[in-house]
Amino acid sequence: MHTELAETGKLQELLGRLGAGLDTFQEFTHLDAQHPSKDWQSQLTTALPQQGEGIDSVLDTLIQQVVANGSPVPKPGFTSYITTGATTIATLATTAASVASPQRYMLTAFNLLEELSLQWMAEMFSLGAMQGVYSSGGSVANLVAMGAARQSAFERIGIDPAANGVTRPVSIYASTECHHTIQRAAGVLGLGRRAVKAIACDDQGRMLVSELVRAIEADLANDILPMAIVANAGTTNTGAIDPLAKIGAIAKQYGIWFHVDGAYGLPGILDERISHLFAGLELADSVIVDPHKWLGASVGVAATYVHDRELLRRAFTQEPADYLEGTALQEGEPSARVEHSLDDFGIPYFDYGVELSAPCRGVVVWAMIREIGVTGLRQRMRRHNDMAAFIVTFAEDYPQLEILLAPTLSICCFRYVSEGVADLDRLNQRLHRQLVRENQYMPSTTRVKGQLALRPCFVGARHEQDQVEGLMAAVLRIGATLV
């Protein structure tokens, strides 16, 4: 008879078997999950089990049918979107946390690393003494930052919006290139998605400061409260970096919260050749970064930074709960001396964001930085930025390739062109689909200045120069065939 208790002590053996299956997966020689020869759907789609089959049988199926038909995201040639497969150390740290500390709370080594890793990133990315809190991704990280901005703006006029709600219309100023999570955050926070005012960009995808000032002045004339300005330190579309110093100065002039969305691009500050583009970051009231993007963490790790987490506490604190409030030692108690990890919850991250239950994310970031250090991460940023720049140099020798926007970071937007082809958008759409179905080099597409562009984004730790060279050779080959 198979029971859960009967499996105690087998973790080493079982993880060894799973590890072997994952190693095979990471050879990346397998066919895509949707290849016509695959039949895993019929193997996995079974009736609800009334009797368990045991852990060994389930693990076999997990390796042979689930892992073997996993995502193309970890492949070295995958350059779509801004996501990647976790590095090996990130996978190990995530696994360790899931077993040894299912929650990030209480006085454990994991709780300590939650804070230490946040401090390390603040130092690494020139955020000074800003304090952070982890969340599941850029969506929640931006939500937390906008919650702080809302709290700050209304407290200035004598209102606690977290307790009593929003009492007047507000505006959030973000460029037309900002991530759509800003609109969603405005909706969730009760401000309304239409509170986000789209500010035009220049031909490089950077916010136009003159248009920002015009929008602020118009709102002030109509008694609309300017709540926040959102600037990009690396847009999702093209990697553009807004003029942070100029925008930050305007935010200070008008007394508006200044938020910098660096979910993707903030690690680019480590590349000293372009670090000057991040000047003005020191003016920010909040900053976000997603370690599960360029740093290579397992998906589900983002961080929001502010200057004082007490503002986050006022914005997101929970009401008291009987089952929690009396559990830990209370300050001033005669016996208030910590002798057990359950005597204290540790830093109350649950009051600084929207999650109560949350995994230990800091150990993942700590492990990644500890493994290769700032020097190793800087080398990765430089390598990826160089790969995007290589496309520009490569295209100079091929009239079939047109650069639509030169890279700022590790994204390059280009397309295949041919005389006599009237619909270049359709040509490049077909080229892209053929690229993806070959299952070797997989960029995404976007629109730049109204034109469809191929958009490789290099953020994966496994990306090397041969991937970009192979991609360009494949684009030329497929393009010539389609023409």
Question: Can you describe what's shown?
Answer:
- With 483 residues, the protein is an alpha/beta fold.
- It has two domains: 255 residues, Type I PLP-dependent aspartate aminotransferase-like (Major domain) (Aspartate Aminotransferase, domain 2, 3-Layer(aba) Sandwich); 109 residues, Aspartate Aminotransferase, domain 1, CATH 3.90.1150.10.
- The chain has a seven-stranded mixed β-sheet, sandwiched between helices. Strands 1-11-12 form a three-stranded mixed β-sheet, covered by helices on one side.
- A hairpin with a 7-residue loop joins strand 9 and strand 10.
- The relative contact order is 0.13.
Q: Give the H and E element order.
A: HHHEHHEHHEHEHEHEEEHHHEEHEEH
> Cα-atom Rg, whole angstroms?
25 Å
Total count of domains: 2
General shape: globular
Tell me the name of the CATH class of the largest domain. Alpha Beta
Strand percent estimate = 5-15%
Going by helix content, strand content and strand pairing, the class is alpha/beta
Which blocks of ≥5 consecutive residues have pLDDT under 50? Answer: none
CATH topology call of the largest domain: Aspartate Aminotransferase, domain 2
Q: How many H/I helices?
A: 15
Q: Write out the strand line-up for the largest beta sheet, numbering strands in chain order.
A: 2-8-7-6-5-3-4
Q: What is the H level of CATH, i.e. the homologous superfamily of the largest domain?
A: Type I PLP-dependent aspartate aminotransferase-like (Major domain)
**Distance from first to last alpha carbon:** 64 Å
**Multimerization state:** single chain
Major β-sheet profile: 7 strands, mixed
* CATH architectural grouping of the largest domain: 3-Layer(aba) Sandwich
User: What is the arithmetic mean of pLDDT?
Assistant: 94
Number of strands: 12
Q: State the helical fraction.
A: 40-55%
